[in-house]
Queue: 2 jobs
Job 1
Amino acid sequence: MTEAATPIPDRSNGRERILDEAMQLFAEHGFDSVTVRDIAAKADVSVGLINHHFGSKEGLREAVDAKFIRQFEEVLDSAAPSMGQMRMEDFFAWVDDWIARHQSTWPVTVQYFRRALLEESEWGASVFEKFFSIARASIDRMDAQGLLRPDVDRLWLPFLMVYLELGTSLLDPYVTKILGRSGFEADLWKRRHRAYLSLIYRGVLPPKDRARKSSAQEAN
Amino acid sequence: MTEAATPIPDRSNGRERILDEAMQLFAEHGFDSVTVRDIAAKADVSVGLINHHFGSKEGLREAVDAKFIRQFEEVLDSAAPSMGQMRMEDFFAWVDDWIARHQSTWPVTVQYFRRALLEESEWGASVFEKFFSIARASIDRMDAQGLLRPDVDRLWLPFLMVYLELGTSLLDPYVTKILGRSGFEADLWKRRHRAYLSLIYRGVLPPKDRARKSSAQEAN
DNA sequence: TCGCAGACTGAACAAACGTTCAAGTTTGGT
DNA sequence: ACCAAACTTGAACGTTTGTTCAGTCTGCGA
């Protein structure tokens, strides 16, 4: 009330302020648990303004989703053109680099992403498919170059790669509980990146055991 | 109304019927989106009975959680004693076998598990930690037996293994969209099981390229 | 047969919810 | 200076929510 109309927040624009605060609240507590009054209070506007701009709470959700998608896919799409001739490592590096550049806004982003994926919003599938097709594309490329063993399962490998890629996004709260800090902090991130590249390429067995183990497996 | 008081459902016991239907509804739509009236209607009881047995909606949630935990952890714990001397493959096989035996009730189970992980309920962390400690235990065992290359990241490997283990549970709706059927159907399940064991042990690179690739990586 | 403890009902209630609307304020072009 | 359009307000409304409670029904030991 007595505070200035536009104290700290991003823009004096009320609409943008609603969008930002709504995204943050949805990310933290989930869509159903957040009331329009919560949002109005946090954005320092009246409840009426929300429905004036977005028609309804559902309309607000769609607007927030749209804004998030724009931010998120813009990067994935800008990577897509060169993706055809991109190596798997390069794609992962690309994503990691982007993340590093957006690390300040990342906590909200990853939480929102997490909820969107688990709540099965319509575009969750589209994002998943994007990751999936990128994984499969680089797999196909590796295959064409003879970089994939013949016995590797072509059906499941891209899914497993996506699991590894999205795992920390989906489970970071629990990772944080065990590690004491978020798996998205720069050093942990880089280290994980190397770890899963190593895992995908070479697995964990030492060279000497590979022959023995694989022959034993083929005996089944 | 005109239907019999105990038509089809599991037991004539109203309390159990509430518990079962609530678990199913929570799994499908999430706790906040389900009303006590929804549950009462589906369980064919009055709204008063729910609060009579469980005190409140929150009390019902705890009871449903408790029931789910009992079912879920009972198996994990029964596996834990022999886990110390269990090979990683055996543990995965164990879990898969259990799943196969519970495949009829699995859709609800996995959905509930998924939501519990998303909503970060208190026991979600406990389940995650259980998976994590089992993964780490088998990694330690492999390490002691010299079955882990020295350069493998001991910090992230258990997390990555858990990602692979839980990935399909968390993302099955999207897998289903791409594959046309659930990744939990028996044949797909078995095939995925083999695929991630192979990935963890040996990665994807053919033997001939391993030396070249690893030396190139170490040059960084 | 009595009585009572527990299962069960459903109307009623207060609070919280999303939504509406008449009215006030600010903005920008003329 | 004027006005129309857009922005913004907050009280009010109707609905839905979780919860309560007086009362009914049922089974069972005394």
Job 2
Amino acid sequence: MVSFVSNYQDQTQLLVAVDCIIFGFDNDEVKILLIKRNFEPEKGKWSLMGGFLQPNETATNAANRVLETLTGLQDVYLEQVHTYTDPNRDPVERTVSITYYALIKIEDHNEELSKQHSAHWFSLKETPELIFDHQQMVNHAINRLRYKTSVQPIGFELLPEKFTMRQLQKLYETILNEEIDKRNFAKKINQMDVLIKLEEKDMSSSKKGSFLFQFDKDKYENMAKEGFSFKL
Amino acid sequence: MVSFVSNYQDQTQLLVAVDCIIFGFDNDEVKILLIKRNFEPEKGKWSLMGGFLQPNETATNAANRVLETLTGLQDVYLEQVHTYTDPNRDPVERTVSITYYALIKIEDHNEELSKQHSAHWFSLKETPELIFDHQQMVNHAINRLRYKTSVQPIGFELLPEKFTMRQLQKLYETILNEEIDKRNFAKKINQMDVLIKLEEKDMSSSKKGSFLFQFDKDKYENMAKEGFSFKL
DNA sequence: AATATTAAGTGTATTATTTACATTTATAAA
DNA sequence: TTTATAAATGTAAATAATACACTTAATATT
């Protein structure tokens, strides 16, 4: 019998960080929140917001902390994506990075805080050059988001409480990167029966105005318990 | 402007490990390879095979190393699943664990090596009690495998080079945990046109014998380049 | 040599889902 | 009052998924 666990004492310890891919939606396109490095190395380049894992902190805790630091938001939708371990990925010192993507409602975030961190929202199609392996992280997160939004109703995390059918459709179109027929879209969404149609209309987009909807989270969760699955 | 990156020097370093969920298929059910702990804590309980991340090693390197140590196999299909960071997940010392699942052909592995590690194959339905958070890791890996096998032709990694249509079907039935009609299954697989039907028959399962097939990896990859996607 | 046994191999009809597509309507602005 | 604009809505056609049963090839038995 060979002992398969080496002595814990002899083992190398490493820095462990989390990096957050923060997604927002501005009614027209999906954006990510990046911060500008004002120190070397890679000063002037843009990067994801990150932070080191602290003693007694889970990676999820750390991601929440990092997120709150930059946006002021708590209780944000977060999902772990992938862990990057290339020994040379960070030129300063070897760091393992665990990535999370966050879905926030752009209008909710604290602009003062993000200004303090020289943060800026970028359209996914116009991201600037990123440090290290951050572009890869972003790509991976987008793929995961694409998959997840199509099988779970997490898209609503990116929209205001009340939204129009067109906003919702536009959101899915941008995330999935495909055009959708509006009648077919409405049909599919309505069939799933997870939206509450309000009396209220949004008058900003047209003369006729368009009805506002809300996501019925309780109803969805009850249906999910009964085996229903969201599928777009 | 607030400096968002703390000094690297001040930061806590942690042990980082990989744990491998090793899947195999024995023509009847999906199994995982577990090792029995012969030391405290949790002596006598079963666990995943794991190992610490070494200097200059990526997590994928580490997973490959761990896998070769236990099975003698190289170039095995490996996919990172999730990273576990609860500060108390390992009672001996705080350890971050990155999990990978591996798909191997059971008959290819080195039994001598696995015997040396007190390893044993368990049916997924009859896994023994596992240490720490290893059961959670297994569950997560199964879910990922379920998803991945249905959108990429990785199931073949679990089968011998030559296999019958029924073996392939049985494999999918066990992974996806649902019965499939054999005519519909064959139709779907044949439509995708990624199998080579051999002249050869396997005579072990019936008097009539059943034709053997091979996965045409090159053809699949060319088709994938052209936008084709495997979907079961 | 004939017969029995067993899993392999195969096709069609039905149902459900997805896609394509155009007109009317409510409201504000002119 | 008219005009302009996006919102709202339904149906037919095409495609995909499902349900379902008999014939065949080879071995084993008599």
